[in-house]
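User: quick one, fold this
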Amino acid sequence: MIVRSTSAVGVGRPAVYVNAAHIVSFIDQTGGCQIRVSGGNNVIAVTESAEKVAQLIAVAVQS
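Assistant:
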């Protein structure tokens, strides 16, 4: 249940892999969305919209 997104920060916009089971919430922001994951106040900024992240999570969960 891994979700692959594109980092909104960093040189070359590296891929970000997140276990869907650890995603607590996600919200739109300018230029993409923020994904909050379990384990503290951990936030990942990605270039995909919140709607796209929701679709990626749905696909990951079905796999």
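User: anything notable?
Assistant: The beta strands are 2-6, 15-19, 23-29, 32-37, 42-46.
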